[in-house]
Amino acid sequence: MDFTLVKYTDLLKALKNNSYRFVTFEEYCTDKETLTEQEFVILRHDVDLKAENSFATAKIEHGLGVRASYYFRVVEQSNKPDVIKSIADLGHEIGYHYEDLTICKGNTFLAFEHFKKKLDYFRQFYPVKTICMHGSPRSKFDGRDLWKYYDYHDLGIIGEPYFDVDFSNVFYLTDTGRRWDGFNVSVRDKVSSYQNKWIRDGLVFHSTDDVIKAIANGTFPKRLMMTTHPQRWTDNCTEWFMELVGQCIKNKVKRILVKRK
Length: 261
Prior knowledge:
By secondary structure, this protein is α/β, with parallel strands linked by helices. It has a single domain (5-260), classed as Alpha-Beta Barrel (TIM Barrel). The protein contains eleven helices and seven strands. Strands 1, 2, 3, 4, 5, 6 and 7 form a seven-stranded parallel β-sheet that branches. β3, α5 (81-89) and β4 (93-98) form a beta-alpha-beta unit. α1 packs parallel to α4, α1 packs parallel to α10 and α4 (51-63) packs parallel to α5 (81-89). The protein is globular, with a radius of gyration of 17 Å.
């Protein structure tokens, strides 16, 4: 079975055993020049739903001596103060998974004010220095468009993955769509400018076992950002099955949305 906590642990161990250095996104933004020639993985988690699942992955990582970056939304399913605090206490980075333009229905002024307020909220738990947009696939608003009018650096933010990662040197892998090759069903969680090159280079992986095999045989990229959605990863059979069925339905809807873009 894929997308279990057992399989996630196997994935982390495969990376560790093959000398990958784990860095938070904050560490990458701070030390980008030094990391250019090293083998590393930026381990990013988008906490869209089921925040408790994130605590499970955070504990596994902590046990392996790994730090990761966790991005929380403001919606109730993600914004669980006790979970956020517990993950921060384990030494992980906390960031804001923002969707303010969608929440404020495209009003940029209100969205920026909302962003500042929520950024201050998350800074109660961690000195937040990085942010990451939530894709909001059903929304007509792209959260990143807020930065056409404002500059997040003015608020002490040093990084946003879609703007501040050098994807000419860093591969992007995400489990969006509950698969590692879900870029065809992703509305916004992808790097369109480099995806075709990565496909031509054979850097397409479907299952977690495919990723682990590539790590073991040396064909996996040496520098990457890996994004997971912890809601997908569980050892509970009922939750696992419900997530599988639900994601199959979502993927069909997303394919329609992608074609309309």
